[in-house]
């Protein structure tokens, strides 16, 4: 029984043996420890992952121990087995004398770490270690989005200092930025309409978290209804203290210098107030 168990470890597998009652013993034994009856001789592959049933922490390892840093001895029940085997559990690099980490607990999931060179002994499993189910990598991802046909056409207009929308053939609303369809009626759009770069603030929010696009903190982001448009456009609003921005305020696009323009909405730094009177709430209430 033990010879078969160790031969399987050498090949990177773990097996148990089935008893007459149907239980799987790991490590395998010739007799059922509960009844004393002979086992069936049917070997069953188990694991490789398992569950810690109990453990004992070793804060100051002795020279005979498998690690020279704190670790745990644990009884581990491999998946598919009904009994547990004793082995070392590696919880990572810890200072001598350290207390058990909070992750060490009965019920934790673990996996064996096999040695690169195996000889058919229990030492072929170097140790068990926590099963990783989630990681928090310190990574960053940079990407560039490419607009489709409608958005590409809109950005082409912005690169020329023009704001172009599409008129819906059903509701006749002008959609800007153009999408290639009307979100209200769900029909394709193709008729281009050039709009002025002036509009009205419908709703807004004051932000206190820094943003590289904003001139200062706090800054205002808001929805602007361009003159002649049927949908609002989200943009920055500046050129006025944040606490003076209001619904119905008239604004105009603040364009960057012509030499800085490209196919990007960054050509418009933000929208800033004009000297025109505010638009009454009744005229913009349907665009909130």
TrEMBL record:
Any single Pfam family the record assigns to this protein: OB_ChsH2_C
Coiled coil: none
Start and end residues of each ChsH2 C-terminal OB-fold domain: 44-114, 192-256
PANTHER family to which the protein is assigned, alphabetical: BLR3430 PROTEIN
Protein name: OB-fold domain-containing protein
Species, as recorded: Actinomadura nitritigenes
